[in-house]
Amino acid sequence: MRILMILAALAALAVSPEFAQSPNPVCDGDIAIVRITTVKPGHMQAYMAAVAAHKAWYRNHGFKDNVIVASRVIVRDERTGTMKYTDSDVVAYHIRPPGSAQTQSKRDAAWDAYVKQYRDSSDIKSEYITCMPKLAP
User: Fold this and answer.
1) Cα→Cα distances 62→26, 33, 89, 93, Å
2) Strands (E), the chain
3) pTM (whole model) above 0.70
4) What is the pLDDT of residue 100?
5) How many degrees, rounded to 5, is the angle at CA 72 between CA 70 and CA 77?
6) Residues of the chain under the 70 pLDDT cut
7) Residue 135 in 3-state DSSP?
8) Is residue 77 within 8 Å of 84, Cβ to Cβ?
9) Residue 15: which of 134, 130, 116 has the closest Cα?
10) Which residues contact 22 (CB under 8 A, 6 or more apart)?
11) Which helix (H) or strand (E) covers residue 58, if one does?
């Protein structure tokens, strides 16, 4: 059941059914799904390609208001003390995700392809639905 929920959330990057069905708390910013993801060894380029394919799917299906970004995590190298990107950790954001009711009927081969790209290149460590403050331009 948990795997199904994670895959559905990853595929849709949509607000969870539990959130959609319950009285939502007031959000004076933007609803955002935040995922902490572990990228499989040697698969960072493939993961970033999945992010690009994911964005493209939404744009090609008429969704223009949502934002999808992936931020690589920066850590201090314990040996040298220098800051560097990890090869495995990413924080991904889906801001203003359309609800599953809006995306369910539009799922197609391109949807399946980007979901497979994510599955093949990464594993979700944790996922949160947040109210992100509106960012000033």
Assistant:
1) 27, 20, 30, 19
2) 30-39, 67-76, 83-95, 122-132
3) yes
4) 80
5) 175
6) 1-23, 137
7) coil
8) yes
9) 130
10) none
11) helix 44-60
